């Protein structure tokens, strides 16, 4: 269980300069007329004690004024003076960031080290949990064991095999099987620059049960407790995305994907289709991962050493030897081929998908799928086919306004829509020509 750092009670304990906190407070106060002390503390994710120091300094500099709104100092309401508004406008011109106060890079390094999956006492998934997690995928036992071993090691992993074999789905599921939680900062301060880090689409909140016993008032609210992140990138990955990106409109840096994956998993889908050579990607990340430190480049060429601790998972349809030479392949921890399912596992998966989609299973139709559709075309029994075919049956049924039914006609209609135009797309002479309504005659044709 990850723990959030303790709440700073003074400006000194935040690790930030008073001038930085005054700037953030002025920008948070700028839009409104008056703002209560607790509300301003909530905006900056700082304690009341820290905000009192900041506001006292702003009042002393005649940037802000306070007025009573109740019986205690917690009811004080603050507003910017004319001089304070002018200063706030100058702050906005330089940097528009007005969110939670950042944490220092050193504080982030210490937290990353404590919550690394490479720590000897880090919680890891066991064989029973692994088997249960992949029970519905009907994987070969040997493949399941290799996936489990790779998670135990936290080493890099290459999943390869034909398109449709379920590699990307397995990679995402591996990410979901990561054990434990991580503390994630909303923003980082490096020198005088702010790096926006927290992303709610990547850093997902844990369940309420996982947060039981956490005292919200005693922890540093500049951090959020999250599930271990799973960051997925695909063919869109470019060289520019591997480094800090300066957002000139807001005056802050955006963290690269592999940096945001710290404490979790980085999935590179469709390896070989990026605008970066596979070997270059591997070289870019492998050495920094071994050292635990990556060098990011700020404007002007200044290098910033940041923690780098993530599990790399590469997914590709290409044969590995087409992408990487032997030296590069040796740097990949596990190489696992994800191929066609056995006939037994394919039948079980098809039945399972019928149950998920609430379609009544029919053994005779399943047999037709194997012997009359897959068999003559030589199409392998890939894991993505059952759900795709059944999903199309649902699509056609929805269009016709009726409940989906698994029949030879509806299955063949789905098969044609999926493979028409592909090599070996048609399998059976019984397949009717398009257009075809598998649920009955076409009412439009009946009227002609």
TrEMBL record:
GO MF terms listed in the record are: ATP binding
Concerning SUPFAM superfamilies, the annotation shows: P-loop containing nucleoside triphosphate hydrolases
Q: Which SMART domains match?
A: AAA (SM00382)
Family matches, as Gene3D superfamilies: P-loop containing nucleotide triphosphate hydrolases (3.40.50.300)
Keywords (A to Z) from UniProt: ATP-binding, Nucleotide-binding
The answer to whether the entry has keyword ATP-binding is yes
- UniProt key word Repressor: no
Highest taxon of the lineage? Bacteria
Q: Any idea where the AAA+ ATPase domain is?
A: 153-342
Name-wise, this protein is ATP-binding protein
Task: Name its species.
Answer: Massilia agrisoli
């Amino acid at each position: 269980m990850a723990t959030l750092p303790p709440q700073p009670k003074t400006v000194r304990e935040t690790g930030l300069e008073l001038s930085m906190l005054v700037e953030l407070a002025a920008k948070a106060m700028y839009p409104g007329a008056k703002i209560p002390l607790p509300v301003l503390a909530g905006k900056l994710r700082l304690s009341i004690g820290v905000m009192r120091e900041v506001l006292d300094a702003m009042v002393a500099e005649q940037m802000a004024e306070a007025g009573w709104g109740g019986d205690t100092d917690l009811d004080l309401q603050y507003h910017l003076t004319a001089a304070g508004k002018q200063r706030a406008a100058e702050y906005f011109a330089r940097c528009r960031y007005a969110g939670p106060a950042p944490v220092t890079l050193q504080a982030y390094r210490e937290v990353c080290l404590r919550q690394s999956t490479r720590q000897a006492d880090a919680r890891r998934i066991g064989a029973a949990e692994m088997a249960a997690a992949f029970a519905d995928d009907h994987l070969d036992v040997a493949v399941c064991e290799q996936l489990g071993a790779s998670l135990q090691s936290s080493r890099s992993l290459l999943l390869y095999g034909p398109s449709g074999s379920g590699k990307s789905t397995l990679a995402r599921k591996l990410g979901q099987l990561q054990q434990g939680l991580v503390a994630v900062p909303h923003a980082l301060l490096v020198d005088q620059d702010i790096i926006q880090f927290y992303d709610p689409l990547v850093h997902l909140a844990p369940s309420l049960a996982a947060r039981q016993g956490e005292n919200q008032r005693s922890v540093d609210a500049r951090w959020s407790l999250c599930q271990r992140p799973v960051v997925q990138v695909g063919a869109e990955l470019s060289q520019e995305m591997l480094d800090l990106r300066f957002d000139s409109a807001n005056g802050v840096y955006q963290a690269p994907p592999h940096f945001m994956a710290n404490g979790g998993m980085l999935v590179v889908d469709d390896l070989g289709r990026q605008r970066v050579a596979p070997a270059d990607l591997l070289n870019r990340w492998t050495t920094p991962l071994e050292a635990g430190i990556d060098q990011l480049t700020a404007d002007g060429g200044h290098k910033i050493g940041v923690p780098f601790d993530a599990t790399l998972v590469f997914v590709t349809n290409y044969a590995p030897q087409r992408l990487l030479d032997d030296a590069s392949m040796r740097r990949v921890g596990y190489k696992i081929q994800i191929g066609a399912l056995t006939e037994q596992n394919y039948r079980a998966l098809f039945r399972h998908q019928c149950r998920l989609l609430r379609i009544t299973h029919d053994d005779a139709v399943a047999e037709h799928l194997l012997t009359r559709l897959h068999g003559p075309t030589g199409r392998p029994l890939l894991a993505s086919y059952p759900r795709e075919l059944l999903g199309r049956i649902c699509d056609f049924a929805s269009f016709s306004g009726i409940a989906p039914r698994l029949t030879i006609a509806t299955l063949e209609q789905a098969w044609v829509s999926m493979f028409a135009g592909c090599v070996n797309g048609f399998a059976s002479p019984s397949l009717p020509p398009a257009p075809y309504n598998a649920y009955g005659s076409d009412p439009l044709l009946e009227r002609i």
